[in-house]
Write a structure and sequence with these properties.
Number of domains: 1
Largest sheet: 6 strands, antiparallel
Distance between the termini: 41 Å
CATH architecture: Sandwich
Order of helices and strands: HEEEEEEEEEEEE
Helix content: under 10%
CATH superfamily: Immunoglobulins
Number of strands: 12
CATH class: Mainly Beta
Radius of gyration: 38 Å
């Protein structure tokens, strides 16, 4: 029994995903992926597309008539009086501001966790259905603004139940209490059982009207123990 539960917990490691590729983003590019149990948002803006410069038209110049040389009279130069040179302190160079050609940002967001409940909530009986449920919302939406780029995320959970006696159930229904709950399990033998719920998140993100799948999944684990008892037997005439 313990080996099965340990195997289940060890099999729910969060997938680590590759970050935003280093391809050129001339205008803006975004990416959303799962890493270390969190949702990672990345956005990057480039310097923009390179502008093409039109060649300047070539203007042909007209021939200009050369003037005849004029003979200037000789002038006897007067001796120059040289003044002593002034010592000027060197000017300090001011720092030059460089315009940024790219901009990027990265944030992480944690997803909601859940609690597990069951009914009857005190010593349920063998051979009687036990109702299980969690308080996880059926959908998770988030809007993130990174460097002026708006990213809309939509995620939905799926659930995998391990009831501790070797029985499993996979569903997208969060379950509910009696009588409308759809997640039930009946134990055949009395005892204390570890119940494990694995919630897996997956979905899409949208940017500039284009929707793409989020790379990878995020898994959250919730566990509890349940004690099931046998009903007292009474013989009557």
């Amino acid at each position: 029994m313990k080996a099965k539960i340990l195997f289940l917990v060890s099999a729910i490691t969060v997938t680590s995903l590759s970050p935003l590729k280093a391809a050129d983003c001339e205008v803006a590019c975004v990416d959303v992926y799962a890493q270390d149990g969190q949702l990672i948002f990345e956005a990057r803006k480039g310097s923009g597309p390179k502008a093409s410069v039109a060649p300047k038209p070539v203007v042909k110049s007209k021939p200009v008539a050369k003037p005849k040389p004029v003979v200037k009279p000789k002038v006897i130069a007067k001796p120059k009086v040289t003044a002593p040179k002034k010592i000027v302190a060197p000017k300090k160079k001011m720092p030059v501001a460089v315009a940024a050609t790219s901009l990027s940002d990265r944030i992480s967001k944690a997803l909601p966790t859940t609690g597990v409940a069951y009914q009857p909530n005190f010593q349920p009986l063998i051979n009687v259905p036990v109702y299980f449920w969690c308080d996880m919302p059926p959908i998770f939406r988030s809007k993130v603004d990174l460097i002026g780029e708006v990213i809309d995320v939509t995620l939905r959970p799926s659930f995998a139940w391990a009831f501790g006696d070797g029985s499993f159930k996979s569903t997208t229904d969060p379950g509910g209490p009696f009588p409308k709950g759809k997640i039930t399990h009946t134990y055949s033998n009395p005892g204390t059982y570890p119940v494990v719920l694995v919630t897996t998140w997956g979905g899409t993100f949208a940017h500039n009207g284009v929707e793409r799948a989020i790379t990878g999944q995020i898994r959250k684990v919730t566990a509890l123990t349940i004690t099931v008892v046998a009903a007292n037997t009474r013989f009557t005439n």
